[in-house]
Amino acid sequence: MNPAVEANCDGLVGPTHSFAGLAPGNLASAHNKGDPSNPRSAVLEGLAKMRLLADRGLPQFVLPPHERPDVGFLRRIGFAGTDARVIETAAAQAPELLNTACSASPMWAANAATVTPSADAADGRVHFTPANLLTNLHRSLEGDQTMRALRRLFPDEARFAVHEPLPAAPHFADEGAANHVRLCADHGEAGVNLFVWGREAWETWSGRFPARQTLQAFEAIARRHGADGAVFARQGRAAIEAGVFHNDVVCVGARTCLFFHEAAFEDTVGVQADIRAAAAGKFEPQFVEIAAADLPLSEAIASYLFNSMLVSLPGEDRLTLIAPMETAETPRAKAAVDRAMASNGPIGRVEYVDVRQSMRNGGGPACLRLRVALTDAELAAANPAQRFDATLQDRLTVWANEHYRDRLSPADLADPHLLVESRRALDELTQILDLGSAFYPFQQTV
Ligand code: SUG
Fold it and tell me: Which 3 state secondary structure label does DSSP give 4?
């Protein structure tokens, strides 16, 4: 066993963060459609959360936003002329497609990839499969740039394998780590990988909202990563119907603890038995289940209690929950947290964070980060310029204050100057994070 720590890689919110209501089945996104957003607050909230985790002693990295508006996407679907003309024409003829091209959705790094740490991988490398995110058009634009970003952050091929996204077909619909939980005795020891899927590839899906993850996508990922300790579990159908578009809206796990809502799985008893069997000889799993009688599913979704980060802080035996403010403001959700802490179970502490801008698009603290368990040697091999500390926070704060607007209405997305501002910001960020030349498509053509 190599000692390992769990690093968090957070997606930096991009300058076009907006409320365009692009994600069916994500109730917050639908509810806030059309409201003006505040991209500057959004990015600063994200930085403050990163600071909290870094200050608590966990390695923290920054994943760069993607180029938005995605002019390349608009060109592929027939808009032509100068970049400004492409945007103006799309705004006039197909505003939904312009909104799509502007989404800052890569901020939700839990959807960036599924990760298998070296302790679980057959070849001893850390494996990543960038998610194809093909259920939603705006998110389907992310996979290739995410692959580039992960290869930059984890460049050493002897230690890291960043695969291509799965084939872009509905059979392999994949949303990354938002539907994956890894349990273990210690981050450096072989663990159990719980893969939660919403539908089968050949199943006729008749739900009101889409099931975004297929069983076959996760089977493919487990196979290509050589992932040990795989358990496959079906997401509760009723949960998807109620607005649980990713399993991490109702479930989070860390070390030996799985914390989940009663409605999370189609067969809760079966999931627990499968996890126990996969963990035999490795560790004793601890299940903390919140009953619907104590916290109705609708309040679990509105409060985003389970979209907390569950972290193991250095020097602490019990786990800490990094929960959104909305949980503290929802009496039954807060009571559930308080009871879990008082029970002397695996969760010992809670800290509340303000990520309201992201929350209004359905992204809580856990959505904003991709967890990667790393040994010391792997940690040392990551791009040091993307390692977050107080100095980088100061630098990115100055950068955000200079380049980000504090108000953006959906109509503002039609402003061609937003493209100029956004590219200027990303160009400077390329230097700050040492992302190399030609990291963004717009840098490849100049
Ligand atoms: O895919 N929202 C994202 C939120 C992702 C949250 N991630 C996790 N649960 N891990 C989504 O639904 C809304 C964008 C908009 O409506 O403009 C959006 O894409």
Answer: strand
Q: How many other C-beta atoms are found inside a 10 Å radius of the C-beta of residue 437?
A: 7
Structure tokens at 395: 């630098």
**Residue at 19 is within a domain:** yes
Q: What is the pTM of this model?
A: 0.98
Q: How far is the CA of 360 from the centre of ligand 1 (A)?
A: 9
The tokens of 279 are what?
A: 């963990």
Q: Which residue has the tokens 């190399």?
A: 436
In a domain, 83, yes or no: no
Dist. CA 106 → ligand 1 center (Å):
9
Domain that holds residue 272: 4-68+103-444
Distance CA 380, CA 357 (A): 33
pLDDT digits (tens, 9 = 90+) for 209-231: 999 999 999 999 999 999 999 99
- Is 373 inside a domain boundary? yes
Among residues 246, 251, 262, 403, which one is catalytic? 246
**Rounded Cα–Cα distance for residues 372 and 181 (Å):** 12
- Give the Cα separation of 232 and 215 in Å (integer): 7
175 is catalytic: yes
Distances (CA, A) of 122 to 87, 94, 137, 290, 372: 47, 47, 34, 35, 17
Name residues contacting ligand 1 (CB within 6 A).
Answer: 20-23, 26, 29, 103, 105, 108, 110-111, 139, 178, 245-246, 248-249, 361-363, 367
Residue 144 tokens read as 């290739």
Residue 94 in any domain: the answer is no
In the sheet with 319-324, reading across from the earlier edge strand, the strands are 309-311, 319-324, 347-353
Q: How many domains does the structure of the chain reveal?
A: 1
We report the CATH number of the domain holding residue 362 as: 3.75.10.20
Edge-to-edge strands of the sheet including 257-261? 251-254, 257-261, 286-290
Long-range CB pairs of 163-168, under 8 A, 24+ apart, other chains included: 163/127, 163/128, 163/129, 163/130, 163/224, 163/225, 164/130, 165/129, 165/130, 165/131, 165/132, 166/129, 166/132, 166/217, 166/220, 166/221, 167/132, 168/132, 168/134, 168/140, 168/143
pLDDT higher than threshold 80 for residue 426: yes
Q: How confident is the model at residue 148 (pLDDT cuts 50, 70, 90)?
A: very high
Give the HSE-up count for residue 161: Cα atoms under 13 Å, Cβ half-sphere: 17
Ligand 1 centroid to residue 81 C-alpha, Å: 31
Instruction: Assign 1 a pLDDT band (cuts: 50, 70, 90).
Output: low
